[in-house]
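Q: Got a minute? One more chain.
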Amino acid sequence: MSDSRVLLSIENLKKYFPLTGGVFRKVIGMVHAVDDVTLDIYRGETIGVVGESGCGKTTLGRTILRLLDATAGKITFMGRDITHVKGSDLRAIRREMQIVFQDPMASLDPRVTIKNSVGEPLLINGVARGPRMRAMVLDLLQKVGLTEDHLNRFPHEFSGGQRQRICIARTLALNPKFVVMDEPTSSTDVSVQAQTLNLMKDLQDEFGLTYMFISHNLSVVKHMSDRLAVMYLGKIVELTPEDIFRKPLHPYTFALVSAVPVPDPRFSGRAVILSGEVPSPINPPTGCRFHPRCIFAQEICSSEEPLLRDMGDGHLVACHFAGELDFGRSAQMEYARAAEAEAS
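A: Always. Here it is, folded:
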């Protein structure tokens, strides 16, 4: 029986990109950008997705929204399988699913006024035009802290934070139910980040939105998210409803958490520096994908892939030794020695 709380569900989702070469551009390999991800997203929640650059965060979000076609797996939105829908059916679904891209300047046409840019979804979907469209656009801009004076300006006349607010207003034009936030604060300074995050929280309450918040910044994700998914090389390695700073159970999550600066001198110098480079997504390691960089790795880690298992209260971890590992001072020193050996 399906859970009525689930707005969107993905099962064994994969997205591979072909790698071509040679004179005839034959496919010589596949980039495993998203590899067998299963996840339920509940109505009204914010689920954070974190990980290193290239781990598949953005590809996951775009595949869920059908901006990219899935290689395999199933996407269910509001009880409907949308994995292979096309044409008018897909356009209708996209009214309910929107995205705020990382770079607001690249998201806005420099030749189009803000009124027309924000109003374009209303016009294309036949919601409003003319004076009614102008009124609706003005209402959206006011909700994100802009005014009537901004209607006829062009994107270059705004700051980075203001442009991101414009993109958020355009995203809300069709009153969607699910929004992917792809690094929405990465191009703004810290003070503007705080304003943008608080704005998104307020809009979530007002419009009843469900967010997928993608970021590499754990502190930002902690502030925004109800649950947190940690990705590594195309897979979710940990999914937690708890404060991830308090109880990381996967070695990779522990390394991420340890690298976050904390305003307490007692914890200075505790950052874990991982040895080696992230393996190639074209030919990922067998077994646990993190095992080449993990000081806790045993023989089973290289031969058998760990599955996500529930450690209690919905805290899922893909590690053979989850709950048994000691992430104390000795582990930090061991990671430091491994990193030094790699560097030398």
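A: The radius of gyration is 22 Å.
Q: Perfect, thanks.
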